[in-house]
Amino acid sequence: MLIRLLLYFMLGLFLIWFFNGGLEKIMTPPSDLSSIPEQQNPYQKTPVVKPLTPSMVGAQEREAMLYLNRIRQSVQLTPLQYNSMLSNAARHHANYSSLNNIQSHEEQANLPGFSGKSPTQRAFNTGYLSPVAEVIAYNHRRPHPFIDDLMSAIYHRLSLLDMSKDLIGIGIAGNGTGVVHSSLTALLGNQKLNLLCQSPPSPKPGTYYYKKVCQNDRPIAKRDYDKALNQVAKLNPKLLTWPKSGGEVSPVFYEESPDPLPECNVSGYPIHLQVNPIYAGRIEFVNDTFQVFELKNNKSMPVIAETIFDNKNNPVASLPSSEDTLATPEKDRWIAFFPKHRLNWNSRYQAQIQYQEGGQLKTLRWQFTTQNQPGLVTFSAQQRQKRTLKIKKGQTYTLYFPPSQCKMASTIIMRKQIPKSIDVSSHFIDGETIQVTLNSAPFGGAFSIAYGPTQSVIRFEIETD
Predict the structure, then answer these.
(1) Model pTM score
(2) Is the dihedral of CA 327, 137, 113, 172 positive or negative?
(3) Is the peptide bond before 258 cis (omega within 30 degrees of 0)?
(4) Rounded to the nearest 5°, which phi and psi values hold at 361?
(5) Dist. CA 87–CA 170, nearest whole Å
(6) Is 204 exposed, middle or buried (0-12, 13-18, 19+ CB in 10 A)?
(7) What are phi and psi of 424, to 5 degrees?
(8) pLDDT score of 382
C-alpha cells in the first residue's frame, strides 16, 4: 500500500511538472514567436527577455542597415545612406512602441514618448524637411530577423526596395517586457527632395507644382519633384524581382498591417515583380500570366494563388508609404503573387510572368529556393496522432505541421516530456515548425514532444552507440 501511494505521489509530481513547466505557449501572429528562446529549459515556465542595452541598440541599428543594404545590392539597387535626423525620428518611435506596448504607425499625444502623430511629422520634428516612408517590425533580439520579417510583408518590402529612396534612419528599442518587448523602426527618404525643400526654386507661371510636400509648405514644381526622385531611380535596374533569382527565403507569410489578406493568417511567401518608376507606362503586365511552380522530381507543379494583385487593383486603399508619393496609380508599378498555402521547406520554385514593352511581348522567368531545414519530417493530416522517431546524440529533427488551409489556430502549444537526465534543445522556427536537437543522454531512454493545434505526439527513442 505504501509503495502504491508513493507511486501515485510521484505520478502527481510528474503531471504538475508536465502541464506547467513542460508547457510552451505562443500566440499568433508569429512575431510573438521570437519571445520563445532558441534554447529553453523544459521546466522553465516563462521565457525571460532581457532589455536591450544602449550598446546593443547601437550595434544592432548598424547591423540592420548593413544587412538591408546587402539585400538591396544583391538585386542591383543602390545602397541607402545613413541620415541622423531620420535615425532620431526612428528611435523615438521605436521607444514609443516598446514603452506603450503599441503596434501602430501613429502616436497618441497623451502617451509617454510621443514625438509626432505620423511618420512624416516625426521626421519634421527632428529637422528633416520632406516626406518619408516608415516600416516597423517587432519582438526580435537580433537585427536580421527584424529585416527578414519586413521583407516577407509585401507593403513593407516595397518600401525597403523603393528605387527612388536613398536615405535611411533606423531605430531600435526594447525594454524586454510586454506585448512589444522590442521594436525596429526604419524611415526612408530622398536626399535630393530634402535638399529641394531647403531652398526650392520659385515656381514659374504655367507650371504645375505641389504645395504640401515640404515641412515649410514651400511649393515644389512637379518637374523638380519628379527629377529628384528620378535621379535616384535612374541608377537602379529596370525590373526587380523578389525573391531574387537564385535567392533563398522563408516559405511562409503571416500578417502585416495594413493586411493584404484579411481572410488568412498564414499563407505562402509572397512573390513580386517591381518596375522602376522611370519605366512606368512603358512596361505593362499581361493579365493572368503571373504563375509560380514548385520544381520537384523533374516536374513543375503549379502553386495555387490565394490572390494576385498589383498597384492598380491593390485591396488596401492606403499604404504606409502613400503619404510620400504624389504619383498616380494608373501605370503598372508592381504585381504580387500570394500563394494560398505555405511553400514547402527545402524546395525550389520558378516564377514567370509576361509583359509588354515597346510593342513586344516578353517573358520573365526566375527561380528561388526555400530554406533548408535539417532532418525535415513533414506530418500530413493522416500522420498527426502519434509518431516514433529514432534519434542520436547531436542529431537534429525539424518537425513540420503544414496547415490544411490559410487559417491557423490562435494559440500554438508545444508540450515537452523530457526526463532530467536528457538534454534536449527545442524551439519554434515558426508557427508550424519545431526544431529538436538531442544534446546528450548518458543513459539512453526516450522523450516526447507534443504539438498542440494538431494533437500530434512525437516520441523520440534514443539510440546509443
Answers:
(1) 0.85
(2) negative
(3) yes
(4) -90, 125
(5) 5
(6) exposed
(7) -125, 135
(8) 62
